[in-house]
Design a protein that fits this description.
Largest sheet: none
Strand content: under 5%
Radius of gyration: 16 Å
CATH topology of the largest domain: 434 Repressor (Amino-terminal Domain)
Order of helices and strands: HHHHHH
Helix content: 55-70%
CATH superfamily of the largest domain: lambda repressor-like DNA-binding domains
CATH class of the largest domain: Mainly Alpha
Number of helices: 6
Number of strands: 0
Distance between the termini: 20 Å
Amino acid sequence: MTFGQVIAEARKKLGLSQKDLASRIKKEDGTPISPQYLNDIERDRRNAPSEQILAQIAKELDLSLDYLQVISGKVPEDIKVEHYKPEEIEEAMLAFRRTLEKRKG
């Protein structure tokens, strides 16, 4: 499932229109995002939004911010590569993959 599909599915599950959800998500200047912008996100016509907007979407849709960051292809600020050595990142990714594989089988 794509990032946009996850957003659309969660929004519909909560019975929210794009207009309703868009009015709840504020840009840095305090104005709401437009329903068209949300539509573009849901149709995967735009890159994933900023972490600030992503956090609001996660909260409004009762989704994990970590999950949205992973499916949107973003690295959470607290684990940006510049904070860690390459071998630490590799070790963490291997552990992450092992955990996901265990859950499959």
